[in-house]
Amino acid sequence: MEDRAPEKQSSYTYWVREATEDVAPRPVPRKLSAADLSKQPRPAVLGSVWNQAGTWEERNLNSWASNRIKELLKSLGSLEFSSGKAYIEEVTKCSGDAFLVTVRNKKRVGYTYEVTIKFKGDWLIQKENKKIKGHLDIPEFSFGELEDLQIQVRLSGDEDLSTDDKMKICNDLRLYLAPIRKKLEVFEQELRDR
C-alpha cells in the first residue's frame, strides 16, 4: 500500500485561458521612435516638469510682488484736497510674502504685505501755506481682503500745528485710501494671471 499525501484544497481557483483563433493576438512590445513621441498629445499640466502628478508645488513671488507693489503705489501721483495738495515721495517699506501654489493642477495665489509710504504736501492752514511731511502706514493687507484696507497717518515735524489742523490733514490724507485700493486690486489681478 502506498502512502499518499492528502491533496490540499485551495480557497481559490486559477483559470488559464487557452488561446484560440477567436482571441485577439497578444500585443508585441516595440521601441517608440522620436516621431511616435511627437505625435502623442501633450497634457496641459501646470507646474514644473518634475511635478507631473500635479499634487503640490509652491512658487515664491516675493521679489516680483514687492517690486510691483512699489511701482504701482509710486504711480499714484498727487492728490488735491480742499485746503492742500499731497504727493507720494517714495515707498519706504514693503514687506511680506506672495506665493503661487499649484494644487492638483489648480493655481492658487496669496499674499500678505505691510506698506509704508512717504508723502510730502502743502496745506493752507490759518491763511498760511505750510509744508507737511509724513508717512501713510498700511498695517496689513492680504489676498481678497482689500475692502478692509485701512490707512494710519503719521505726521512729522507737526509741533506747530493745532490738534484740529492735524485732524484735518489726517482726514484729507485718508482720501488716498480709494486710489491705493485700486492700485492693489490691479496687483491682485496681475498676481492671479501669473
From TrEMBL:
Under Gene3D superfamilies, the record lists:
Activator of Hsp90 ATPase Aha1, N-terminal domain
Q: Which GO terms describe its biological process?
A: protein folding
What Pfam families does the database record attribute to this sequence?
Aha1_N (PF09229)
List the GO terms this entry assigns under cellular component, sorted alphabetically.
cytosol
Activator of Hsp90 ATPase AHSA1-like N-terminal domain residues are 58-194
One of the entry's Gene Ontology molecular-function terms is: protein-folding chaperone binding
Give the matching InterPro entries.
Aha1, AHSA1-like_N
Family, per entry: Belongs to the AHA1 family.
What's this protein's name? Activator of Hsp90 ATPase AHSA1-like N-terminal domain-containing protein
Q: What lineage is this protein's organism placed in?
A: Eukaryota, Viridiplantae, Streptophyta, Embryophyta, Tracheophyta
